[in-house]
Amino acid sequence: MAEEAFSQRTTTCGGLTKADAGKKVVLNGWVHRDRNHGALHFINLRDRYGITQVVVDDDASKELQETAAKLRMEFCIAVTGVVRLRPDTMVNLDMATGEVEVKAESIEILSKCLPLPFMIDGEAEPNEDLRLKYRFLDLRTQGMQERIKLRHEFIKAIREYFYRTDFYEIETPTLIKSTPEGARDFLVPSRFYPGKFFALPQSPQLYKQILMVGGFDKYFQIARCYRDEDARGDRQLEFTQLDMEMSFVKRDDVLELMEEMFNEVFMKVQNVQLPAHFRRITYHDSMNTYGNDKPDLRFGLEIHDLNDLATKSSFDMFKTTVENKGFVKGLCAPKTEGTNFSRKVIDALQDTAKIYGAKGLAWAKVGADNKLSGGVSKFFVGMEEELINEFDAKEGDLILMIAQEDWKKCCTSMGAVRSKLGKDLDLIKEGYEFCWIIDFPLFEFNEDENHWEAAHHMFSMPQAQYLDTLESDPGSVKGDLYDLVLNGYECASGSIRIHDVELQKKIFRICNIDDATAQEKFGFLLDAFKFGPPPHGGIAPGIDRMVMIMAQQTSIKEVIAFPKNTAACSPMDDSPSFVEQDQLEELHLKAIFPEKKSDK
RNA sequence: GAGGGCGUAGCGAAGCUGGUUAUCGCGACGGCCUGUCACGCCGUAGAUCGCGGGUUCGAUCCCCGUCGCUCUCGCCA
Predict the structure, then answer these.
(1) How far is residue A455's CA from residue A25's CA, in Å, rounded to a whole number?
(2) Is the CB of A347 under 7 A from strand B?
């Protein structure tokens, strides 16, 4: 069959300048907008590279004028014409190509476009589900074009760094063994083995460790990962990690390499100079000071330990909490321009605290002459100055306090209040604030199942000073673990790994996995560790989240070409979907439907 | 599993102490227009007010339920 004949572009819609005046060109693109003045007709033609104004002049042939009159938004067309300078008074400096225009000699309609389900000019933002249904149109918007480009540039810069520094890019399988712990696995049935399943990887963790045993001492991969958990603004069923691992390294080697890499990448992609080294904060300090393990350091509003002050107050609830080995923490919300700490505002803060497990949120307003008023101020009579000095509070500020017996809840609920205030009071500075969170606990106790489990994952190395007390006191063991945090988002997580069979088995046992189960589930790793495994460690930054932050978005859907929605489906292709009975039978599967919601 | 928000022409919004011919902008369709650039002007069509039930003489509006989306808690080693 003959190829469809169409005039193929000789340039793009972004590149024409004054220097091109007089040239005959062909442009291919979409009708972004057209302004038909009858005898004079302007068409903004758009492609990935920009927008160029095409003019159908009054001297155009009748055929050309008729074709131009038929154009509608988003028709895909080819324009043949001559570049010319715009008249002086008609130059549009808001357009990159605003000094020139193309006088059309002919226009071919390559394809028509139905009336649009939504405008793609970025003016009004349609409902997200509609955007996802018509993602091919949404992708044409300037915002999506820019974000997908940014993502490309980011990944490209990362690859350039790793290629130059002699890392190998190695792929690992996406059909792997399902292993216990962690998130819910996506399962893929095996046709050959009835009842057996592959899992999609939650991360290439074990494979990259085995690559280390395999002698590839510097590995990286842009890896797709899958976790079958509820989606969030910063979480999707599938997401992309920069996965990397190195042999013969210690923690600081990994941290410093990442610092160097992100310095280079942020300079290339954002033209931003990051600090040579990122601040390091221990998990414990981060929880105490910022109320979470992913602090947003773009603003202060630090949390203070108020146990001493609470004991001296006349507030029984505070005193009792401290006596019961609990915690009283607080922060001081500054009075800013336009701030009004009304009852309604305080109530909203209390609601926030409660969502995160606080029983209440005590408050007091700072008045003139070191006086407090409202809320719990009456319990601080006689020590008002002490409380005010603790925060160096000013008149009009609002002191907020939480008492909780559970340390973590006390921290996180206060932290949630801190985060809300940061946003509400507009305290957040522009820019990128990276930090490392280090010295994470290796284990946390699972109350429901009544055993210890890995706080991160089971392959992280305990810090040396805890090796003797691993089993006797798991709760106090800190690991060689580190997270990279950017602007309040956890952007990477890594560790130095265990490479000793006996130590690995010991960790499994502490996590309630006996030797037999460990051999069944992780035998391949344990076996590998019997054959001269190197000391190794690595990290895995989340690509989606980092691009999201760079693009100043709050949802990773904005930086993924084809994301799923919150309900874990894709409105565009309508997946997931039912499959034919034959397919199920071939896979030895039978669908069991829940009582309600039997079909949707 | 739980909570908050939203659901009104193709899209974005307004309306509602319960009575309207349900409003506006964009888009669509038809016409006019020689320098626009979010072109302008004139005209036309387009809405079971998410769905079901209840209260009421009367419901887009109030109540209950339900569905969908969205944000959050749980969950996410």
Answers:
(1) 61
(2) no
